[in-house]
Write a structure and sequence with these properties.
Structural class of chain A: mainly alpha
Radius of gyration of chain B: 28 Å
Low-confidence stretches of chain A: 41-56
Strand content of chain B: under 5%
Largest sheet of chain A: 3 strands, antiparallel
Strand content of chain A: 5-15%
Oligomer: heterodimer
Number of helices of chain A: 6
Strand order of the largest sheet of chain A: 2-1-3
Radius of gyration of chain A: 40 Å
Low-confidence stretches of chain B: none
Distance between the termini of chain A: 77 Å
Mean pLDDT of chain B: 86
Shape of chain A: elongated
Helix content of chain A: 55-70%
Order of helices and strands of chain A: HHHHEEHHE
Chain lengths: 276, 228
């Protein structure tokens, strides 16, 4: 036993202890890294705070434009489909009518053959005329279909052009987006800080204010576009906007961005953190 | 950012001061662990040496025989440690003074005791070596870690001041990195303090048994002088 210990403490035991200490630390480091790698696999779910002081939705004209363009496109597609359906229905009707006519004529022919052979010639003439008419109709139909096809192609081309334009707008908007976002955040904060909610305010109340601003950040006008139903609440939100103005931060914005986004702005006042 | 920051990223992205503090703490932790293990080996072997030597000493063996055994062990390149060293120093001095013959009993006793005292303090020094370092690490490294934390949080708040829109995501990594420095400080300090306390107790135990042995041995020598 004494021998064993003596062997352990060669050079006062330094080599052994250095090995032990270094391996201990590297073990702990490896464990920490392993822990990290396993815990990062299952990402932590962000718990959204339940208390939100106010919600603001800016009526962004760009977004609105994009939305209307999209709606138009959808409407056009719908219209086109309706048109196609109608055309098909017309075609079917025509075919039906022709078939009926044919049958009638054939019946008449048999009768006439049986009863009067003299009228055969005249009837033949009539038949020929009808055939001619039918041919003409077919030709008409073909020309109509061609026209429709051309129209469709033109529409498709227009759609592609529209899509490209929308994409270009989106790209520009992406760079604008951050500016707009930070400016709206500033406005939001400023209004939130001075918003005194009346005692009659309840969770879920909702007042929408449309404000008009100048490029200097001054407030031109604020009016309630959707009342919450509580006059005190409406007044309080109006007061908040008036006392938060002017929004001097808007001066730094490029004028085109201001015009596009902040000339008129809709603010939604909706308390969600009240205790009642 | 989305699914948490990894620890390595956190350390690599820390500011220079915090990184320096972390590095120092890591180094301190490694060194203190080296000392912990090495002291453990030394102190435990010393304690075992006390037991085994006391057994041999009180087994009724002739003292000169015991001394010869020690010399033999030294010739075989086995280290003679602890209590045996004290015994050998005292016995050697005692025998040498006795062989001169002219010296009186009290002087022989004094010489032997002095030799044992010297050997004792040498042994104690051997056992105590590096223990103050553990004490220093234990008391200082929390402060070093705290220093890193303060610097890190300061940086985080400076970054926060530069932000127009302050969010938790801006400060959180800085604070996490800062707190990691404190964590490392505590990680280095806790084992050092525990080991220091444990080893001090062990050291007291061993040295007190050395002192007891010294007294017992000198009483035996004293008896030997006065019986002759």
């Amino acid at each position: 036993m004494n021998n064993f210990l003596n062997n352990l403490i060669i050079y006062n035991g330094y080599p052994l202890s250095i090995v032990v200490a270094v391996s201990f630390h590297s073990l702990i480091l490896a464990f920490l890294i392993w822990l990290q790698s396993t815990s990062s696999a299952e990402s932590l779910e962000l718990v959204q705070p339940t208390i939100i002081k106010a919600l603001f939705i800016d009526e962004n004209p760009q977004v609105r434009n994009q939305r209307t363009i999209e709606q138009q496109r959808i409407r056009e597609i719908e219209r086109e489909e309706q048109r196609r359906v109608q055309q098909e229905r017309e075609l079917e009707q025509e075919v039906d009518r022709q078939r009926q006519e044919d049958e009638q004529q054939r019946a008449a022919l048999i009768e006439r053959e049986e009863l009067e052979r003299q009228l055969q010639l005249a009837q033949q003439e009539e038949l020929e005329r009808e055939r001619r008419e039918r041919e003409q109709e077919q030709e008409d139909r073909e020309t109509r279909e061609l026209a429709a096809k051309q129209q469709q192609e033109a529409e498709r081309r227009r759609e592609i052009a529209e899509k490209a334009a929308a994409e270009a707008v989106a790209q520009a908007a992406r760079t604008e987006f951050e500016l707009v976002q930070s400016a709206t955040a500033i406005i939001q904060q400023a209004v939130q800080q001075v918003w005194n909610r009346p005692p009659s305010a309840r969770n879920g109340m909702r007042a929408i204010l449309q404000i008009q601003m100048l490029p200097t950040g001054e407030l031109l006008d604020a009016r309630i576009t959707q009342s919450s139903g509580d006059p005190a609440f409406d007044r309080a939100s109006e007061n908040a906007v008036y006392s938060a103005a002017p929004f001097t931060e808007l001066r730094d914005l490029p004028i085109n961005i201001f015009n596009a986004n902040f000339r008129t702005l809709s603010l939604i006042f909706q308390p969600e953190d009240l205790l009642n | 950012m989305d699914d948490g920051i990894s620890l390595i990223e956190l350390i690599l992205n820390a500011s220079f001061a915090v990184q320096l503090v972390m590095f120092i703490l890591f180094l301190l932790s490694i060194i203190s662990w080296v000392i912990i293990v090495q002291r453990w080996l030394v102190l435990s072997s010393a304690r075992k040496g006390v037991f085994s030597f006391e057994q041999r000493f009180w087994s009724g063996m002739d003292l000169s025989q015991l001394y010869k055994e020690g010399t033999q062990m030294q010739q075989e390149n086995i280290q003679v440690v602890g209590m045996e060293n004290i015994f050998r120093a005292g016995f050697k001095e005692f025998m040498r003074l006795r062989q001169q013959g002219s010296v009186d009993g009290e002087a022989i006793m004094e010489g032997a005791q002095r030799a044992m005292r010297v050997a004792y303090s040498r042994e104690e020094e051997k056992l105590e070596k590096n223990l103050p370092f553990l004490a220093t690490v234990g008391s200082v490294s929390p402060y070093v870690g705290l220093f890193g934390t303060v610097i890190g949080i300061m940086n985080a708040f400076l970054g926060l001041a530069a932000q127009a829109q302050a969010t938790l995501q801006v400060v959180a990594p800085g604070i996490a990195e800062a707190l990691f420095a404190t964590g490392m400080g505590l990680f280095a300090a806790i084992p050092a303090v525990v080991a220091f306390n444990r080893y001090s107790a062990l050291l007291d135990n061993v040295t007190s048994s050395y002192i007891t042995f010294t007294d017992e041995f000198s009483s035996i020598l004293h008896r030997q002088i006065h019986t002759n």
